[in-house]
Design goal:
mainly beta, about 35% strand, about 5% helix, globular, about 700 residues, 5 helices, Neuraminidase, 50 strands
Length: about 700
């Protein structure tokens, strides 16, 4: 999934083609004359003789990537590797070049030799890499693609930067969906872009869910992947799996269970079935059976004390700090992913009195019940923020915020595990204003570039975030400006779909709270050759549509209004280059907007009227290669009447079009078709994934 940013910079423009009003697509011109529309740059007969999907062999491993013995974890993230490509056995095509793509990036080509063989070099950027290669014959005919899964690992001994999820060295902010954040189900990433600052456009890296039962009643979607698994959970990031990237631990306090999801090393969606470790319920319980109410990362507390000095993780599972039954526990991580002791006893009780009582002059012995934790790691040890979420007048520490430095946490652990008697002196940062009513959620992150500073983020129930920069040297806090984070109003990952009893396919709408969800449904029955889920390449699954079957997906109501600002984005993998729709908003006679493939050229069209004929303002540019993934974004700013088209994050076209309202509240949003002269047309041959709509201007980063 692409990251998005608010519109604050000038972007490069590549290959701009701005077309005027009144130019009808070739397919419609042919249809209006009673002819059969041409399907792309190659005729059906030419496509029938297209090269077959090529064979790809990992040069170093000497193994075809489609072999049962592949993929192997023999590669390193960030390194370049050679792959040999050759015609499939029995393919007699004369192949002159191969076109390939890694992880949905820009397509590249290599020239084939006289025997139709070739070699390509790709740099692996994540643990699970998707390599797609297609052959192109001497007459320009494009064949089917072969998709390979290529695994990689981080360099030996590498340690990720604290709280960095996307691999750029900057700390990132992770927020779960739910009441505390006001976000839809999922795990939302706000990418760091400088000290005490994050980008405001959110990316859902949890759209495929946690892989676990989401409510104890067996209610998971048929695909087994529901982003609602993150709703109202506590999330924290650290290298839990020991593979050199930050992973995510998700704790569900309502069910007292957790799961570790393996990080990808970039901002791509987490796969709940790759690098997953299910944690036992007793990992979050004490010997009496009480469950944790708050959990944070404890770093290397246990092993640092055991070794006599603060130490890095060195492959050990990070400890967990847990509030259970009014006691603060350290749950030591073991040298295996997802391995903890469980059933915590007083042998692991760091403190039975809360921070206020630890320094109170009076005889105070109140425990940690009602306290919430968040932490970040500094040289492997936890920097811990604790707040009393109570707002009771009878609670002397109600709404207070306290800080335990890594050194203080180390001394606390020495008192526990070695029997030392250090005087523990946490720092009071605020005497009030931090109750659950004041601040629904807090998250701590390191501050990149500013030594000795830590960000404590307060999060509102409307997903506004405020950085509170803590200077560890002076024990002082400075509060920055609040920023509202932006999530899509509608999001169809198409990984969360079901097939009902009538064999109709439905994709769940992860709508923003307060927005009516509008699922996408296929009217063509899957068992009769209609739209279907598919998951054999970069996106697992995506929806596969057939123009022959006239497949499409539609909502039951209007998603956006074309006289107001909006942004629409989608990933598409065309099976052929032809005039075909990717997404559109239906009107009475035509579509209010259409994002479509014009014979291999991405095109964004906005209606100038809702009437018969082709009345659109269009911008086009870039290319849509067959059998490879491309990310498209269409942006309309009603305030400036400006429309823009982005291909793989680069602006390729811009024009102006005065706001025109098309359609009504009952007009459906379509995937794989558009409306023309009162009927659906332009059916897509190919795959679509990650369709998102903002009711505002958002540009890809």
């Amino acid at each position: 999934m692409r990251a998005f940013r608010t519109k604050t910079r000038v972007l490069s423009v590549v290959g701009v083609i701005a077309l005027g009003v009144g130019s009808m697509p070739a397919a419609h011109a042919a249809q209006s004359a009673g002819a059969t529309a041409e399907h792309g740059t190659h005729s059906v007969a030419e496509n029938a003789a297209a090269p077959w999907a090529p064979q790809i062999t990992d040069h170093a491993a000497g193994e075809p990537c489609t072999s049962p013995n592949y993929p192997v974890v023999a590669h390193t993230i960030g390194e370049s590797y050679e792959f040999d490509v050759a015609p499939a056995a029995g393919d007699t095509s004369t192949i002159t070049e191969y076109r390939y793509q890694i992880n949905g990036g820009a397509p590249r080509t290599v020239t084939a030799d006289a025997s139709s063989d070739g070699s390509l070099f790709v740099t692996l950027t994540r643990f699970a890499n998707a390599l797609d290669v297609e052959a192109i014959s001497s007459d320009g005919t494009v064949g089917a693609a072969t998709s390979c899964a290529v695994n990689a690992k981080t360099p030996v001994g590498s340690t990720p930067a604290p709280d960095d999820m996307n691999g750029d060295g900057q700390p990132d902010l992770l927020l779960p969906g739910g009441a505390a954040t006001g976000l839809p189900g999922g795990l939302w990433l706000a990418e760091g872009d400088g000290p005490s600052h994050v980008g405001t456009e959110l990316v859902d890296i949890g759209m495929e869910g946690t892989g676990k039962d989401i409510n104890g009643q067996g209610t998971v979607l048929a695909s087994g992947k529901s982003p609602d698994g993150f709703t109202d959970t506590q999330v924290m990031q650290a290298p839990f799996n020991g593979y050199g990237v930050n992973d995510v631990l998700v704790y569900n306090p309502a069910m007292s269970d957790g799961v570790i999801l393996g990080g990808s090393g970039d901002s791509s969606t987490l796969d709940p079935y790759v690098g997953e470790s299910n944690l036992a319920a007793d990992d979050f319980a004490d010997a009496a059976g009480d469950n944790a109410t708050s959990v944070a990362v404890g770093g290397t507390l246990y092993y640092s004390v055991a070794s006599g000095a603060p130490t890095s993780l060195n492959g050990a599972e990070p400890d967990l700090l847990e509030v259970i039954g009014g006691v603060l526990y350290d749950n030591p991580g073991l040298f295996a992913a997802g391995a903890y002791g469980g059933d915590l006893t007083e042998d692991y009780a760091l403190s039975s009195v809360n921070p206020y009582c630890q320094i109170a002059a009076d005889d105070c012995s109140t425990g940690w019940a009602g306290w919430s934790l968040t932490s970040t790691l500094v040289d492997g040890l936890p920097a811990l923020f604790a707040r009393d979420t109570s707002d009771s007048n009878s609670d002397p520490s109600a709404g207070q915020l306290w800080y335990f430095s890594p050194a203080t946490m180390y001394e606390l652990a020495e008192n526990l595990f070695l029997g030392d008697s250090h005087t523990i002196t946490p720092v009071e940062l605020a005497g009030g204003g931090w109750s659950a009513g004041d601040v629904p959620m807090t998250q701590a992150t390191a501050v990149s570039g500013n030594e000795g500073e830590i960000d404590l983020w307060s999060v509102s129930s409307t997903h506004a975030v405020t950085p509170h920069v803590f200077d560890t040297a002076g024990d002082a806090v400075s509060t920055g400006s609040a920023e509202s984070l932006v999530a899509p109003q509608h999001s169809w990952s198409l990984t969360t779909g079901v097939i009902d009893a009538d064999q109709d396919l439905t994709g769940e709408d992860l709508a923003e709270p307060g927005t009516t969800p509008l699922p996408l449904t296929s009217p063509t029955e899957t068992n009769l050759g209609g739209a279907r889920w598919t998951g054999d390449d970069l996106f697992d699954p995506a929806v596969s549509l057939s123009s022959t079957m006239q497949d499409y997906l539609a909502t039951t109501g209007q998603v956006l209004q074309t006289d107001q600002s909006f942004t629409v984005s989608a990933w598409v993998r065309p099976a052929a280059t032809q005039n075909q729709a990717i997404v559109s908003q239906e009107g009475a006679t035509g579509s209010g907007f259409t994002l479509y493939d014009a014979d291999g050229t991405p095109t964004f069209a906005l209606a100038t009227s809702d009437s018969n004929g082709w009345h659109y303002k269009r911008v086009s540019g870039g290319s849509l290669p067959e059998n490879l993934w491309t990310h498209l974004t269409a942006v309309y700013d009603a305030g400036s009447s400006r429309m823009e088209l982005f291909v793989d994050g680069v602006q390729v076209g811009a024009a102006t079009r005065a706001p025109v309202a098309v359609g009504s509240s009952s007009s459906p949003f379509l995937v794989g078709a558009y409306k023309y002269n009162g009927a659906l047309s332009g059916f897509l041959d190919g795959k679509v994934a990650d369709v998102e709509v903002w009711n505002s201007v958002a540009e890809p980063n």
